[in-house]
Write a structure and sequence with these properties.
By secondary structure, the protein is of the alpha/beta class. Among the domains are: 1-53, Roll (SH3 type barrels), CATH 2.30.30; 57-67 and 798-944, no CATH class; 102-322, Rossmann fold; 705-790. The protein has 31 helices and 28 strands. A seven-stranded parallel sheet has the order 8-9-7-10-11-6-12, sandwiched between helices. The chain has a six-stranded parallel sheet with strand order 13-18-17-14-16-15, with helices on both faces. Helix 14 (363-382) packs antiparallel against helix 15 (384-391). The longest helix is centred in the C-terminal third of the chain and has 26 residues, at 888-913. It comes from Dictyobacter formicarum.
């Protein structure tokens, strides 16, 4: 005989549920009450499979007042094909915050899905985008997924997909592609071979690889750090190639596309518009200024594709507190030693002589020299190690052929522009030797070598910046902080790390992570470092973007100031984000306090202005796009030529007055912040109302249980089995399982009897996060369920019981039922069947022969929580239960009706949240083809 999807069968001595992927020859089965890991394929030609019937409870196995609640929660937490409005939530290893449902609801109202998720740093854009992908996968609307991201973020994406969404994705990087292709058939693309891939966008953007990817591109694509893919105009640079790739992906009108970035504008309105056009080409016709009532319709249209929120917007969304740490910021200055100061002055004289060379009228060579001396000034401000390396290295601009090329390379390597080719390679020393002659005896080269030797001699005791930083790091460690020290150049990071290793107390582990390490090794070093209770990470900006470090670190020291404050914000965002277990994070801006130092210029012109705007607006606003030209000219005038010298054609300030260029930059920045404020107001999510999110959130929690349900079930069950469960002052749940049954510990797969756990993020290194799909919770729910269903089992959750309570005025019976449905999706003649399971408690008063059914769910829930107030004789209890069991046939019509009503609710929920699919002729039908399983019978008698 053929078995319908969702039917119960018996094989290998146990009951199973038939899954949708079954065929006539092979049945794909999940054990009754089992998990996805236990899914098994059974060949009907080789093994006997028969129809199974669900036996009623045994009245001789009486439970107590906890039985109904524990069994209900065990059943709900065991669901992997839930009947809630979202198909994916039973597969998640994290409960999304309420605000993270907004992008999901926005996406489900679109066909295809096209979104720009631009929430602030640390809010959880990765979770929001992956949640959409998981939902469409579980609805059967997509079968393949690709994530395009910078290579250094690939492993983090892989871990997020695996740990939180149970998606096993392959890394497609230059270092992995050969191995992946070896497993492909002749002529088969690896993108056909592997349904879920995380692809380095810089690897795949080349013409040869791009064409293959576009030919076999999955139907769902997420583009991370999308601001690096904005249109760059003419040319063949990396940004242009990335934009061409993403534009080609977006050209397929049926493809789902999500763009993810915390900086959608990057200070450039045209770049922002180029992202919007990827979502909908009609956005090319949007007016430049969207304010005013006349553009309300255009704003609403754009708001359906664009979600952008500050922390303040979501901190208490739907009354769910989302804890972010308090940021403790301070500035700390240092003074150069006399020896270091003399070298800086010598470098300054060399810089002025070099830039102002009357013997060379070539504008190209002038720019080469300018970038060379600026590299030297920046590196000597960083460390003696970086200065020596720069003095001995060839300038990055030395081999250019045009002024434009020299400026492009110089800005890329020195000005920390956010439109760089990601963060790879920017920590290399830029070099200062610009001489065209190869002879080592040139005058310039001899001076460079001499200064390099002087820089080497300043390492260690004569480097006051380093010495004061060592004390600062030591103080942080004593205060319980685990700091990250951000440096600009690789030699500086290695130099600082070595000094910290030598000077900090034993037991403090110090590691350096720079761009010299491949991304995999960076992850490994951080993982190894996290094993130490006291740790310091010294790194370059190769870790400033996208990498989440909040679980292991809670402080940032800007050892070298970035020349772009957005980079500062990104550095701080590695620790200052949701999931940070510390209530406070510390940020130190460390700078040279000399009045004429480069650090003071950066601090005065950029860093403090950025901080002021962030404080007043609540978000970071990028520096205006043309700021690098202003910064260049300010550096040139104030550092190289002196404030007292006027440049022909320039209007400079007199001593003590604000430079007009600084004033203009400040004005532009203020205007940009005001535009950003208006934008935030204009694009608030009017398309998704708070009550709509609340409704779907309640429906989801009712179907599969909430974080509170997981915590309550875990504590009550373990206590009932003899465990010790307590909570310390920090809210950590302490579990001691030594006295629990050995069979339970084996099921939970615990390697130690004592655990520190939390049921909500964030968690510390020595704690585990217990969510509904964690193996511990899955094992606990399975153990309770199997023991309750096994006549020989010894479960704390029994399938029947009788309780006396003052909460009822007459005999009332609760039936714990499990319903199974077919969700049938029809489109263009194709039919797709999904299995859904639901747990419902039905109740009636009186005898079963003349039952009066109760519709008040609040009343039913209160009974589930009722405790006995008087004793009931065992024989009386058994007789009452037998009476219900014998009359179950009389109750079946109402059970079928309840299942039909629930099926209609389920159909409406699917139509409601996926309303856009109806535009493409998609139709949903929910069939209740099986009689509800009566898992438990619980009789409540009035207190005598």
């Amino acid at each position: 005989m053929n078995f319908a999807v969702g039917s119960l069968v018996k094989a290998r001595g146990r009951e199973w549920v038939v899954l949708p992927e079954s065929s006539e020859e092979v049945l794909l089965l999940r054990p009754l009450g089992g998990t996805e890991d236990e899914v098994t394929g059974i060949s009907r030609h080789l093994e006997t499979v028969v129809e199974a019937s669900f036996m009623p409870p045994d009245p001789d196995l009486l439970g107590d007042y906890r039985s109904c609640r524990l069994l209900r929660d065990a059943v709900r937490l065991g669901f992997r094909s839930s009947a809630g409005p979202f198909r994916s939530f039973a597969h998640l290893a994290v409960e999304p915050r309420p605000y993270q449902l907004v992008p999901l609801l926005m996406a489900l109202k679109q066909e295809p899905v096209r979104l720009l998720i631009a929430d602030d740093v640390g809010i959880g854009k990765t979770v929001e985008s992956c949640l959409i992908a998981r939902e469409l996968l579980d609805r059967g609307e997509i079968s393949r997924l690709a994530i395009l991201c910078p290579p250094h973020l690939a492993e983090q994406w892989q871990a997020e997909l695996s740990e939180k969404f149970h998606i096993d994705a392959k890394l497609v990087l230059s270092s992995t592609v050969s191995q992946l292709e070896r497993d492909c058939r002749l002529g088969q693309s690896l993108f056909d071979r592997y349904p879920f891939v995380i692809v380095s966008i810089d690897f795949i953007k080349s013409d040869r690889r791009r064409d293959e990817f576009l030919r076999t591109c999955p139907e769902f694509v997420i583009v991370d750090e999308a601001h690096t893919c904005t249109e760059a105009g003419e040319g063949r640079g990396g940004r242009h190639q990335r934009h061409q790739l993403v534009a080609s992906i977006a050209a397929d009108a049926q493809r789902h596309l999500i763009l993810v970035t915390a900086t959608p504008h990057s200070g450039n309105e045209s770049a922002f518009r180029s992202l919007l056009i990827l979502l909908d080409k009609d956005f090319a016709r949007l007016p430049e200024d969207l304010s005013g009532r006349e553009h309300e319709q255009a704003r609403r249209q754009l708001a359906a594709y664009f979600v952008q929120r500050r922390r303040a917007d979501i901190r208490a969304y739907l009354h769910a507190d989302t804890p972010f740490p308090t940021r403790l910021e301070q500035e700390q200055s240092y003074k150069l030693s006399p020896e270091y100061r003399r070298l800086v002055e010598k470098v300054m004289r060399f810089a002025r002589e070099t830039v102002i060379d009357p013997n060379d009228s070539s504008k190209h060579r002038q720019r080469v020299r300018w970038w060379s001396v600026l590299a030297l000034l920046r590196s000597i401000a960083s460390s003696p190690a970086a200065a020596a390396a720069t003095l001995r290295s060839r300038a990055a601009t030395a081999d250019t052929e045009t002024e434009e090329e020299a400026n492009s390379i110089g800005r890329h390597t020195l000005l920390d522009l956010m439109d760089n080719e990601a963060t790879e390679g920017v920590d290399l020393v830029p070099g200062s030797d610009f001489e065209q002659e190869q002879s080592s005896e040139t005058r310039v080269r001899r001076r460079l070598q001499e200064m390099a030797r002087e820089a080497e001699a300043l390492k260690g005791a004569k480097d006051e910046k380093l010495q004061q930083a060592i004390k600062m790091v030591g103080s942080m460690l004593k205060d319980g902080f685990q700091p990250i020290v951000f440096c600009r150049f690789i030699p500086t990071a290695e130099y600082v790390a070595q000094a910290l290793r030598e000077r900090l107390p034993k037991g403090v582990q110090v590691e350096a992570v720079t761009g010299l390490l491949p991304p995999v090794e960076r992850e490994n070093r951080i993982a190894e470092l996290s094993e130490y209770s006291q740790r310091v990470l010294v790194c370059t900006d190769c870790l400033s973007e996208g990498v989440n470090l909040q679980e292991h670190f809670n402080a940032v020291i800007h050892y070298d100031l970035s020349w772009n404050p957005t980079r500062h914000e990104q550095r701080e965002g590695r620790v200052d984000r949701f999931g940070q277990p510390s209530k406070q994070v510390r940020v130190v801006t460390y700078y040279d306090g000399s009045a004429d130092s480069i650090d003071r210029i950066v601090l005065d012109v950029l860093i403090r202005k950025h901080r002021q705007i962030r404080t007043s607006l609540g978000i970071s606003v990028p520096v205006p796009a043309n700021s690098e030209q202003v910064i260049e000219s300010i550096f040139e005038d104030k550092i190289l030529r002196g404030r007292e010298n006027l440049i022909e054609g320039d209007q400079m300030a007199l001593p003590g007055m604000e430079d007009p260029r600084e004033k203009e930059l400040s004005r532009q920045w203020t205007d940009a912040s005001e535009r950003e404020k208006r934008s935030r107001s204009m694009f608030s999510q009017e398309t998704i109302k708070v009550d709509e999110v609340a409704r779907e959130l309640d429906a989801m929690r009712s179907a599969i249980g909430s974080t509170v349900d997981v915590a309550t079930f875990t504590r009550d069950t373990l206590l009932a089995y003899g465990a010790s469960v307590s909570q310390n002052s920090k809210g950590v749940t302490l579990l001691d399982l030594k006295e629990t049954p050995r069979a339970l510990r084996d099921t939970l797969s615990v390697h130690k009897s004592s655990l520190r756990a939390r049921f909500e993020l964030p968690v510390s290194d020595d704690e585990i996060y217990l969510n509904r799909t964690h193996p511990f919770i899955e094992g606990l729910a399975t153990y309770v369920m199997d023991a309750a269903l096994d006549p020989e089992g010894d479960s704390v959750a029994r399938r029947c019981g009788v309780i006396r309570t003052s909460r009822v005025a007459r005999r009332t019976t609760l039936l714990l039922t499990r319903m199974r449905f077919h969700i049938v999706t029809r489109q263009a003649g194709e039919e797709r069947i999904l299995l859904a399971e639901d747990c419902q408690i039905l109740a009636f008063s009186g005898a079963p022969q003349n039952a009066t059914w109760i519709d008040d769910q609040t009343c039913i829930n209160e009974l589930v929580e009722a405790k006995p107030e008087a004793n009931t004789l065992p024989e009386q209890a058994r007789n009452l239960l037998r009476q219900v069991i014998e009359n179950i046939p009389l109750l079946q019509p109402h059970l079928q009706e309840a299942a039909a009503i629930r099926g209609n609710e389920l159909r409406e929920a699917h139509r409601r949240v996926r309303s856009a699919s109806q535009m493409r002729g998609v139709r949903y039908e929910v069939k209740s083809e099986f009689a509800p399983d009566v898992l438990g019978i619980y009789v409540y008698l009035p207190k005598l």
